[in-house]
Specification:
Radius of gyration: 13 Å
CATH superfamily: lambda repressor-like DNA-binding domains
Number of domains: 1
Distance between the termini: 25 Å
CATH architecture: Orthogonal Bundle
Number of strands: 0
Largest sheet: none
């Protein structure tokens, strides 16, 4: 499993839920737009400090983010075709 991809997917999901653009989140968090886009695609490894700044820009707590990362990890570990249908 690629941890960068999981983190990027979680950040993208939260941003879309808040209906924010990549530009606005990058600007609010003080991160270069190009770097932010790489984070969402899982092509960069953000520091804890960068993640914290992004979460502040999104108005999301670290606990909420962690819960989403766990869900994203499970989704990548167990793709839809291998999950049991209940």
């Amino acid at each position: 499993m690629d941890e960068s991809k999981v983190i990027g997917n979680a950040i993208r999901t939260l941003r879309k839920e808040k209906e924010l653009s990549q530009f606005s989140v990058a600007q609010r968090s003080g991160i270069n737009l190009s770097y932010y886009c790489k984070l969402e695609r899982g092509e960069a490894n953000p520091s804890i400090r960068k993640i914290h700044e992004i979460l502040k820009a999104l108005g999301v707590s670290p606990v909420q983010f962690t819960e989403l990362v766990v869900l994203e990890s499970e989704y990548l570990l167990f793709p839809a075709e291998t999950r049991a249908v209940s």
